[in-house]
Structure formats: C-alpha cells, structure tokens
Amino acid sequence: xxxxxxxxxxxxxxxxxxxxxxxxxxxxxxxxxxxxxxxxxxxxxxxxxxxxxxxxxxxxxxxxxxxxxxxxxxxxxxxxxxxxxxxxxxxxxxxxxxxxxxxxxxxxxxxxxxxxxxxxxxxxxxxxxxxxxxxxxxxxxxxxxxxxxxxxxxxxxxxxxxxxxxxxxxxxxxxxxxxxxxxxxxxxxxxxxxxxxxxxxxxxxxxxxxxxxxxxxxxxxxxxxxxxxxxxxxxxxxxxxxxxxxxxxxxxxxxxxxxxxxxxxxxxxxxxxxxxxxxxxxxxxxxxxxxxxxxxxxxxxxxxxxxxxxxxxxxxxxx
Length: 319
Known about the structure:
- This protein is α+β, with helices and mostly antiparallel strands.
- It folds into two domains: 8-215, Hypothetical protein af1432; 218-317, 2-Layer Sandwich (Beta Polymerase, domain 2).
- The protein contains 15 helices and six strands.
- The chain has helices at 8-23, 31-54, 61-70, 79-88, 105-108, 110-118, 123-130, 141-152, 159-168, 175-194, 201-214, 217-227, 259-272, 299-305, 307-310, and strands at 233-240, 250-256, 277-280, 284-289, 292-297, 315-317.
C-alpha cells in the first residue's frame, strides 16, 4: 500500500497532466471532452463526500477524494494502450474486456494504469475504480459510493440520472443506497443490450445482488410516476388491489393532457422499463408492468369507461 494518499491539489494536477498527455496522441481527447471529463471528476469527488455525509457513513474522506478524482484517470487511453495493459497483466484481466462497450474499458483497466503510473496499491481504492462503471458482485461500501457518485453527480443530465438521484436522496435511510444501485444497474443493462454490446458478468451478478431492494410493487409505482413526470398526465389515482386480484398489486389511473401526451407517456416508459404488454385504443392505453397496471385515458374515455367507479371498493393510496 502507498505510504500516504495524494493531496487533493496534487490529484488535480495529476489529472490535468494525464489528460494533456493523452491529447498528444488521441484525437478524441478534444479540449471540450477533456474539460467535461475534468469537471465530471470534480463532481464525482464532491458527490462521494456528499453521500458519505448524507448517510453518515463515516468513510475516510481522503480516500473518497482520491478515488473520486482519479476514477476516470484512464478515460482517454486508446485501444492500443488497453491492449498493452492486457498483455502486461494477463492474470489480472478478462480476455473478453475489449468485447465490452468502450465506455467501460477505462474502468476495468484503470486500476492497472493507476498502480503502474501513480504507485497506488490500496485495494479498496483500486477495486472501487475498477468496478465503478460495471458494478461488482461483491462490493464494499467505497465501491458502492463511487458508483453512485459517478451516476448521480450534478453535471449528469437526463431522466435516468435524475431518477437515480431521487431514489438515492429520498431519505437518509441507507436502504436507498441499495435501491439506487439497483436502479442504476438496471438502466445500464438496458442501455448495453439496446446497443448490442456484451454484458460484463460483474454487472449481471451485481444486479442480482441488489434487485430485491427495488422489487417492491409500491416502489415500482413510484418509479413509474417518476418516469411519466413530464406534465403529460393529471388526476393520478393509485389503487391498492392486492386483496382483489392475484395478478397484480396496484392499479394507476391517469388522464392524459392530450392524445400526444398519451403517446409520449409510452415513450418515457419504454426508456425506463422493458414493456412487453401494451394495449392501445384511440383514447386509452393500458400498460402491464408486472405488479402494477397503468391506465392512461383521455378525459372523455376516463369518464366513459368509468374505471374509477369500478375500482371504488379498493383502497386509494397517496405516494
């Protein structure tokens, strides 16, 4: 193990120098990309500290700073650079690494570059960095915090990043760490499969480790509502039908602002869920989300079908 951790000022200079070096031979390392990645790294460092404080984890702040700032140290290495690392450390790597999405190469091989170039040998820091993109089947709390910070830091824009932040910071109950990781891994798996890349085994096993934390029908309802929270629907009612149906637990009934917004709801849901059973009419849509059923009606159709009267015997809940 290194005798001491780098100081934050040293780490910032190390990162700048590494990215400048990569710019001399990697055409993809443009000034814009480098600046964005540098700012992202600072954001991840800040998020690591924020998560530690929010959940009162009591982790070593200097370690959080080091792994946060250096997690993307190898981001601008080239395929040739990665191949050299694979050849030099064959026993420490997976021969399939280069078949995975290029977005994870910097993580899976980043620990080797840090060990070789900066002399970092702290296994806690190296493992956290190695698996910050893919997840790990046996992570410690530092690895969990880094993966969360990488996905939820404030410069990340988009619905999936926003949803992960909402889940993570819903309260300071540590269970939200597990729930957010489950959501992040599920989102990553869908993204990887949609683009035809090989799934890293660690990602699959990590998801299995966390999936039960979000496998709660009421949490699924919350996730559905977050996905469609784009001013597309109104008059949202959630009915508890667990004592009325053996097939599902909750029914969500909504009124679409317009036909276009009804269609947009499905688009947002497809981005978050693997929709296998969607039934559509001219003025209504029914989505089967396993334990939850979502009805999206136009105002006239909701009145005509009178679904709320049909469900009037069920307990209506607030989320």
